[in-house]
Design a protein that fits this description.
heterodimer; A: about 250 residues; Rossmann fold; 8-stranded mixed beta sheet; 7 helices; 10 strands; B: about 425 residues; alpha/beta; 17 strands; about 35% helix
């Protein structure tokens, strides 16, 4: 099975969460059909809207643990990333970065360097952990798909936290999870061998460039009041006894 | 099922339509609204945000309308009733997701307080030009339900009805109101909770291992469960089978022709008679029938009075449900009457449906209005008078030249030859 999904299931196991309370949301570029085998609920929504859809799931039922698997985190729906960080919405975002939109004829994602394609990439790439960190994420990390143990630990850590967490995983294309025989081993190995683990470094220094090694590790780990707590505290102060807090199961039907 | 007393702020109020819609949503049992502020609908969201926390409901101001609509679909599958509130530009942004909503059969309500004109248009003035967008806005085949209230009281009542329809048929339900009704202040009576009938979610309660998320009941609507209850759901916007699993590969190979879109369309079309709500008046000996909806209905009442004063026999058919369209009713009337007059605040949308359903049996006269205001009742009266006199069968929609059009456009633009 796909190493990311393996790491994901191991991470859930380590965190002690009930599988049935985990809801995975993904959007169009990322369609892991294998996920139906592992016992979580899965929603596959319109391009870029996984985080927003997850926000609704979480606020509809605060008992759920939302995990958004996203291929293209930073273009379509990038605004949802920014604002979920600002709100500190309780959610784990796993950005599976393969630098391309492989299913649509190898066009390139906003995480590649200028000049990667002569005719279509001119911009500086996004540095996903830094972007998430600056928007207020309480946990950021980056691993390659071969770091299965580290990734599983990282997922467990993020699931234990209450707030907006982002993990970037470098992995080759979408064929990856469909058939084990189609895995691009060379590329998988290339990412792994060209990476260096530096935990707790400043996210400003973890940009992926063609010259330097890929920095992996856990970068951000802080505590901040999650959205639902802030919401309950603020309205509790204003409305007092009249307020029915979210997530207490006291009277929500 | 009756409404929860905690959700119903019973009493007699003087409030505007938007506010009434906010109260209506809560009374219907709405537990989540994700919205983004937009004139002229904001008061509805503000009202809900103010009253919701006391009933255990949430309002969240999302980052945009794209996020708003996605969030309400998520909340819908988490097991609560949901709505979003918007106007033209926001409504346009929501279109892609409406298709997803139809596909994953998430029950939700969209309140569209229509503004005038395309694009930014006239944010603070009225229009009825989103009617076709409501029906055809997203790509692919699907059906929706759309309701057009005409007063603040109705914005309360029909918001509840919209929620009930959404739960019953599991499809996007649009409340297609407009700025004029939304910003009109009138008496609104909120009845006691025990007088409000609400439709509960169609929850599945059979054995867990036998649950199929898209296996329809007799009325073609499947039963629902909540995310997180251990059903191992796989819900996707891709073409899927009854289990919810994508079947695109089978279709490509020609193995399966059983597309779920057939059912998405049929569950509304075949239940149309149960869904459609109309109001008619003075229809018995009518020669001309005015077909109207929303605010245009109220303006047309005066137009009809004037025409009746001149001895013309006019009936009034009001479309409370605009989509699905009452094909049968219009066809039936077309064989009896001389003509239809359709006043609407656009340059022709619902009028073409009327023409389609009349199948050339009766003349169809459009009384257009460019938006940012309502019709002059005299224009409607004159159009009725003309329709009653016209002896020829004219096989196209006849556009009535209103005073406003004559005044502003000198009778309409002409191309220089």
């Amino acid at each position: 099975m796909n190493p990311i999904i393996t790491a994901f299931t191991n991470g859930i196991k380590k965190s002690g969460l009930e599988l049935s309370k985990v809801v995975v949301v993904s959007d169009i570029p990322f369609e892991p059909e294998v996920i139906k085998e592992i016992g979580v609920d899965f929603f596959h929504v319109t391009r870029g809207r996984a985080i927003a859809f997850g926000t609704g799931l979480k606020l509809g039922n605060p008992d759920l643990k939302i995990v958004a698997f996203i291929g293209d985190l930073m273009t379509l729906g990038g605004n949802h990333l920014v604002h979920s960080g600002r709100r500190n919405m309780e959610m784990l975002v796993i950005c599976v970065n393969n630098f391309v939109y492989k299913e649509i004829a190898g066009t390139l994602a906003p995480s590649v360097s200028p000049g990667f394609s002569a005719f279509s990439t001119f911009e500086r790439p996004f540095n996903a952990p830094h972007l998430a960190n600056s928007c207020g994420a309480i946990y950021t990390a980056r691993w390659t798909a071969m770091h299965t143990n580290e990734l599983a630990n990282s997922i467990a850590n993020a699931l234990d936290k209450r707030g907006f967490s982002v993990i970037e995983v470098l992995a080759p294309g979408p064929n990856f999870y469909k058939d084990i025989n189609q895995v691009n081993y060379e590329l998988l190995d290339f990412y792994y061998k060209n990476s260096v683990t530096k935990n707790n470094v400043d996210t400003r220094n973890v940009e992926i460039t063609s010259e330097e090694k890929i920095v992996t590790g856990e970068f951000t780990d802080k505590e901040k009041s999650p959205f639902i707590d802030t919401y309950n505290a603020q309205l509790g102060k204003i409305l007092g006894d009249k307020f029915i807090p979210l997530g207490g199961q006291s009277g929500r039907d | 099922m009756k409404a929860n007393p905690r959700d119903v702020n019973s009493g007699t109020y003087y409030m505007d339509g938007d506010v009434a819609a906010g109260y209506g949503a809560l009374a219907a049992g709405c537990r989540f609204i994700g919205g983004y502020p937009i004139t002229p609908s904001t008061e509805a969201a503000e009202t809900f945000a103010r009253i919701a926390p006391k009933a255990g409901a949430v309002f969240i101001q999302m980052e945009d309308e794209l996020g708003s609509i996605a969030s309400i679909m998520g909340a819908s599958w988490s097991g609560v009733k949901t709505m979003t509130i918007t106007s033209g530009p926001g409504y346009s942004l929501m279109m892609e997701a409406i298709g997803l909503g139809a596909m994953i059969e998430a029950p939700f309500v969209i309140l569209n307080i229509q503004r005038g004109g395309p694009s930014t248009g006239v944010p603070t003035k009225t229009g009825q030009a989103d009617m076709m967008q409501a029906r055809w806005g997203s790509h692919g085949d699907y059906e929706v339900i759309a309701i057009a209230p005409d007063s603040p009281q109705e914005l309360f009542d029909y918001t509840i009805k919209a929620f009930n329809l959404a739960e019953k048929y599991r499809c996007p339900v649009m409340i297609m109101s407009d700025e004029c009704v939304g910003h009109m202040s009138e008496k609104v009576v909120i009845p006691p909770a025990e007088e409000i009938e609400i439709e509960p979610r169609r929850f599945y309660n059979g054995p867990k291992e036998k649950y199929l998320p898209f296996k329809p009941d007799k009325d073609l609507v499947p039963k629902m469960v909540k995310a997180g209850d251990g059903y191992n759901l796989y819900i996707t916007g891709l073409i899927h089978d009854e289990r919810g699993y994508p079947i695109k590969n089978q279709i490509e190979k020609g193995k399966s022709q059983k597309l779920p879109t057939r059912r998405l369309v049929d569950k509304i079309r075949l239940n149309a008679d149960k869904i459609i709500e109309l109001a008619e008046e003075g229809m018995d000996d009518a020669e001309v029938v005015v077909v109207s909806y929303g605010i245009s209905y109220r303006v047309a009442i005066r137009g009809i009075e004037i025409a009746r004063g001149k001895g013309i026999k006019v009936g009034h058919l009001r479309l409370i449900t605009v989509w699905p369209f009452p094909d049968k009713k219009i066809n039936e009337l077309a064989s009896k009457v001389k003509a239809f007059v359709v006043p609407e605040i656009n340059y022709g949308q619902v009028v073409f449906e009327v023409e389609r359903c009349s199948h050339g049996q009766a003349n169809v006269v459009l009384v257009p209005h460019g938006g940012a205001g309502v019709h002059d009742p005299d224009d409607i009266a004159e159009a009725i008078e003309y329709a009653a006199k016209e002896k020829k069968k004219i096989r196209k929609v006849i556009e009535w030249k209103t005073r406003l059009e004559k005044f502003v456009f000198e009778g309409g633009y002409k191309l220089n030859k």
